[in-house]
Structures are given as C-alpha cells and as structure tokens.
Design brief:
2 domains; 12 helices; mainly alpha; globular; two-stranded antiparallel sheet; 4 strands; about 250 residues
C-alpha cells in the first residue's frame, strides 16, 4: 500500500471538533461485540454487503489486540482505555487513509462512507459527524498526526464501522471458518509477518493467530475449557469445525 499520502486536515485543532459535537457517552459504554455486530448488520442492510463479516472482524480484533486487551482474570470491560495505539483492529494511519480519505476512492465507496456517516449520526455522534475527518495522516512519521483524537479512533462502534468499510473494498466474501480466516487475514489485513517469503514461518504465524482467536472464544464462552488446549495443539480447520459443530 502506498505510504505517500496528501495530508487531510480536520476542521479544527483536534480530530474530534466542536463542529462534530461531543462524543456520545452511550457509545463508550458499548462493548466491542455489540459494536461489531451492529456495524456488520448495518453493512449488510444498508451498504449491500453480501457476506456476514462478524466472525472475521472478531478474528481480526482477537489477533491484533486480544480483542481490545484481555487482562488476566477475564475480559477487561473498559477496553477502550487500554487498547493498543490504533484500537482493537489496529486501524493504522495508512489503512485509515485508504479506507475513508484517499481522493481516488470510487463513487460507490464514497456513497458507503456517506451512509456510514448518516448511520453514526443516527447513533448520536452529532449532526456534522464525518468519519473521514476524525484523524489525519502525517507522512513524515507514518503515523496519525498529534492533531488527531486517539480516544475517538478507539471508539468501538466507529472502529467497527471503519473496519467493515475496509473489508468492503474487497469483493471477496468474508470467511467464517478458522483456517480460511487466518489466510485471508494474512492476505488482506497484511500483518508485518505476511511480507516474509518463508512459507513455514507464515504457516506458524497463522497457527499463532488461530490460537489467539481460540483464546478469545474461550473468554466469550464458546469453547469448553477442558478441550481447548488439545484443539490449540493441532488447530486444523477440520478439527475445529467438527468440534464447534458439536457445540451447537
């Protein structure tokens, strides 16, 4: 992805300005699971998304940030205050620019962005809310400018909507089976290790990604503890799919 971008300035000193209104407190109380489900439902009902991406978005957040930071002893409820620098999906400046700020975005995707703004306005984000103006990219540092509002970039619903918009830039249906999610995560989300030419190394990293996802499934109560470690030792698609089928 090209890192030489024009700087897009927000309308005020911070990415979240008085013109956009105050960040709604209700959104900060929304947990990541609710936000993912709401963003994906919106995409399917209003943006024309043909596949359900809830599970794949869960996978991305699990691998990128331990689902917004899992602390010892259970899921940390106030994940927003402790999530890593780019939020639960690690929406970095380059991907943010490519998703909502690049002037070369096509008309169809720009319409999605407009509908996303309407959706978030309906959720209480202020009548002038614009998802493309909450942060700016600094080409000198390859990071978000200090003028950006990191707290808003970590908002669970905004982050989930941004991620769903990013996924819609690909025509491929969002995968739902674990090994397929691992491969698509490698190919589309592009973690740093995906740049390696070592196939064995990348296979090992996909297995590690799967184990992080399985850890989150344990916390979310979708796997039985006594069998989790056995599955993680050999987390092939067939084994995990067969096991999950037995649970439902």
């Amino acid at each position: 992805m090209n890192e030489e971008f024009d700087t897009v300035e927000p309308s005020g000193e911070l990415g979240w300005t008085s013109a956009l209104g105050n960040p709604p407190e209700v959104s900060h109380e929304m947990n990541l699971t609710e936000a993912i489900e709401m963003a994906d439902e919106f995409a399917r009902e209003e943006l024309g998304a043909e596949s359900n991406a809830t599970e794949f978005m869960t996978y991305i957040a699990s691998v990128e940030s331990n689902y917004g930071n899992i602390q010892s002893g259970g899921m940390h409820q106030q994940w927003m205050n402790n999530a890593l620098s780019y939020g639960p999906f690690q929406m970095d400046p380059i991907r943010y620019y490519a998703t909502v700020q690049d002037p070369k975005l096509g008309p169809e995707h720009k319409k999605r962005i407009g509908k996303a703004n309407d959706f978030l306005i309906s959720q209480g984000y202020g009548e002038n809310f614009d998802i493309s103006k909450i942060a700016i990219y600094d080409p000198k540092t390859n990071d978000f400018s200090s003028k950006s509002e990191r707290k808003i970039m970590h908002d669970p619903l905004i982050n989930s909507v941004l991620t769903r918009l990013a996924l819609m830039q690909s025509k491929r249906a969002a995968p739902e089976e674990m090994d397929d999610m691992a491969m698509y995560y490698q190919e589309f989300w592009g973690p740093k290790w995906s740049q390696s030419n070592d196939k064995d190394f990348k296979a090992g990293m996909r297995k590690e990604a799967n184990n992080k996802y399985l850890d989150i499934m344990e916390y979310k109560g979708r796997l039985e503890n006594e069998n989790l470690e056995e599955i993680k030792e050999d987390n092939t698609e067939a084994k995990i799919v067969d096991y999950l089928k037995g649970l439902f």
